[in-house]
Amino acid sequence: MRRLPLITYAIIAYMLLAFGWWSVLLLRMNESAHEARVNELAYRLAVQRQIEEPADFRQTEQYFRLTEEFERQQFMILGEAVLLILSLAGGIYLLYRSLKQEISAAEQQRNFLLSITHELKSPLAGIRLILETFQRRKELKPEIQQKLSTNALAETDRLTALVNDLLLSAKLENVFDINPEEIDLGGLIHEAADRVAMKYKTAQLHVDIEPDLPKVIGDRLGLTSVAVNLLENAAKYSQPNPVIHTSLQRGGASEVVWEVSDNGIGVPDREKKRVFTKFYRVGSEDTRTTKGTGLGLFIVRQLVEKHKGQLELLDNEPKGTTFRIYLPVRQDL
Length: 333
Prior knowledge:
Elements: H1 6-47, H2 61-136, H3 142-172, E1 181-183, H4 185-199, E2 204-209, E3 216-218, H5 220-236, E4 243-250, E5 255-261, H6 296-306, E6 310-315, E7 321-328
Parallel strand pairs: 2-4
Antiparallel strand pairs: 1-3, 4-5, 5-7, 6-7
Helix pairs in contact: 1-2, 2-3, 3-6, 4-5, 5-6
């Protein structure tokens, strides 16, 4: 996220210092006024011969009342100054936080527009190129036709997946309903791992499923989306040689624990909560090299919560990221 301009911090510091300085000046003015009143009172008492010695003046009732009034005014000035400075600081903080949120939202929107434009243009350009090849070259060898057709289908699948993610992310916030059924989660993870392995040829996927696990009651399409998103993220951010471990084991009497670990770039601590925000991606679209729309982890978190599960993001050792999911094995959805 972009930082606020330095002039903003300078203005905030100036306003706080100005309030503090005005408070000091007001205290000094009140002190000067008090000294003037004390001198006037001392002169008047001396003229009226109510005191014999100068030291007697400070023992008079008039002097005590004057001093009490001065101290009360000093405390009142200090209290009001502190209250004003705290109010100003609180207002500036709320304004600052709101401004940062607006800047962050604008940055995320910009990143999303850039990424979605790229994600849409790439497969469309590929499909167009393939169609133009078929149109211009009437007699293509069967193996070339097969290769081009396979590529076109792959690009179409990529577009379909992107559109499905966009639709799913919109539904998850409003009208998405779980379609519960008994699911062999281990088998589902194996299928997702095979799918990702076909897409990322260099990835080493290790699947460890504890035997005789109870079945999970959940939405098959939703949990498949969770598995594919986590495994694809692991492969995508662990280039050039991804090593991915996914495991499923019993976590207790009423839950299973599902982990996906990689050897990738990891997620900084300051970003760990924000990566689950819709459209949020670490870094800037101007410098980022990996593809994506910032929807994957948002979808994962929403689906896990819809299944009444818990999701944790941890650091993998010696490097990389671990996603840990706790899912109840029996639940009413």
